[in-house]
Every structure is written in structure tokens, then in C-alpha cells.
Write a structure and sequence with these properties.
Layout lengths: L8 E4 L2 E17 L2 E13 L4 E9 L2 H14 L2 E2 L11 E5 L2 E7 L6 E2 L2 H10 L4 E7 L3 H13 L4 H8 L3 H6 L1
Parallel strand pairs: 8-9
Antiparallel strand pairs: 1-2, 2-3, 3-4, 4-5, 6-7, 7-9
């Protein structure tokens, strides 16, 4: 199972996306004629400035599986609010057996997260965060739970616009 891969820069609609390979799996299909091997790849793409996406690709060859995953990831891009290189607030994400908890951190803390979560947070451009993965350590579930958490993030400006009130009233009631 290969975990590291050289990052490629891909331009999509004037956005430069860098891809990170999260996990690659060799899967086997047993048929009457013997075993058929193929590969499954999970990839995270992002511009390291608030736009991030994830994708899954399957193929007979590793490179083809990775390129399919990158194409899938480009279709699942989301924008997240980043304030002072960290998250705007604490958030909990869940997906199947994967549970993640993320909380903002002060400047200089770095990304305190492991494995699949680290790849997603680096691709998103978050530089200071405290994160914990609970439950399943399956990369599929951890990536999906992390995206679930990132989708829940809201910044104060968007909340003020949605409620139709000034920014001062959001904080002072």
C-alpha cells in the first residue's frame, strides 16, 4: 500500500489544484479462470486556499486508477472558510464508521492530524488545526467524515448575510 506520491499541479477553470494520494489498494476478483487483480485509489485535490475535493478511482493499472480518482475529485470540489489559517469554529464530522473532531488552533501550532485527515487539511490550505479521528481508521470513511465536517463550517459574514443582520449583531446578539 503506497502512501506517498509526487504532487501534480492540475489547472481546472483557472484554479491550480494539487493532488495528494491518500491510499491505494490492490483488490482481487476471483473468477473461474483464476484471480483478476485491479487497483483502487483515493485522491484528495485542493488549491491550498480553501477549495478541496476527494475522489475514488478503480482500474487495472495504478496510474490509470489515480488519474480516474483525480478526475472524480475535480467533480466534488467544495469551498471552505479559512480564517487566520485555521478553522472558524469547532466541528464534528461523521461518515459511516468514521468520526472526526476538528478545532481551531493558534498560529504556529501546525496540522495536528494523522493520515487521511492530514492530506485533506493540507490540500484545503488549513495550516493550524487540532484534529482527532475516532472510530474507523479506514481511509474512505475518514476522508468522507472530514469532508462532512468541512461542509459544516460557517464564517461570521455568511451567517450575518443569511440572517439579514449586521456583523456586530451576530456576536453581540
Amino acid at each position: 500500500m503506497a502512501k506517498s506520491r509526487k504532487k501534480e499541479v492540475v489547472k481546472t477553470n483557472e484554479i491550480e489544484l494539487k493532488d495528494r494520494l491518500v491510499a491505494i489498494n490492490r483488490v482481487t476478483k476471483v473468477t473461474k479462470g483464476g484471480r483478476t487483480f485491479s487497483f483502487s485509489a483515493i485522491v484528495v485535490v485542493g488549491n491550498e486556499a480553501g477549495t478541496v475535493g476527494h475522489g475514488l478511482g478503480k482500474a487495472k493499472e495504478v496510474t490509470e486508477a489515480i488519474s480516474k480518482a483525480v478526475e472524480d475529485a475535480k467533480k466534488n470540489l467544495i469551498n471552505i472558510p479559512i480564517i487566520n489559517n485555521t478553522l472558524p469554529h469547532e466541528v464534528i464530522g461523521k461518515a459511516d464508521g468514521g468520526h472526526v473532531f476538528m478545532k481551531p488552533a493558534s498560529e504556529g501550532t501546525g496540522i495536528i492530524a494523522g493520515g487521511a485527515m492530514r492530506a485533506v487539511l493540507e490540500s484545503a490550505g488549513i495550516q493550524n488545526v487540532l484534529a482527532k479521528s475516532k472510530g474507523s481508521s479506514n481511509p474512505h470513511n475518514v476522508v468522507k467524515a472530514t469532508f462532512n465536517a468541512l461542509n459544516q463550517l460557517k464564517d461570521a459574514n455568511s451567517i450575518a448575510r443569511k440572517r439579514g443582520i449586521s456583523l456586530d449583531k451576530v456576536f453581540n446578539g
